[in-house]
Amino acid sequence: MEDIRWSKFKICGDYHVNLRTLYMAWATPGGLEKWFLRKANFYTIPMRLRAADEQISKDDTYAWYWHGYDNSVQQKGTILEANGQDFLKFTFTDDSIVSVSFSTRNDLTIIELVQENIPQESDPEKNLFVQCQVGWTFYLANLKSIMEGGKDLRNKRVELKSCFK
What is the domain range of residue 155? Predict the structure, then answer.
């Protein structure tokens, strides 16, 4: 019997950065490469590669490459929604769905990330609920660090990947 509590999670972050800047950090290939990915390739429906500063759109497909890994390790998916202002939604690992909402409150920009449709897994090492929640928490902290004038916390050295397994 599937336990629905392990199929979805939500995490939030608050940022002393304007909403538009944060949205563009998620909605452009160059923006994602500043805090999240080594390389973010987005393709339009006719398979044209988007420029680094070009906003993504619904139905774009992507191929993402991580720091600390060679090009054989990549994440592929599809943009399900991108409203150009305050909401993104995309497919992610094992057909899960990630939604990212942006809002402002008390002079802060709030990012709310929800990952859902996470498949059940009996092997703890493959548990996407835990692994993705830990990963997104790290990357939201890295986004805060970079955008608020701090350091980039990512491991960018392929030779160290075995230390992080």
Answer: 4-164
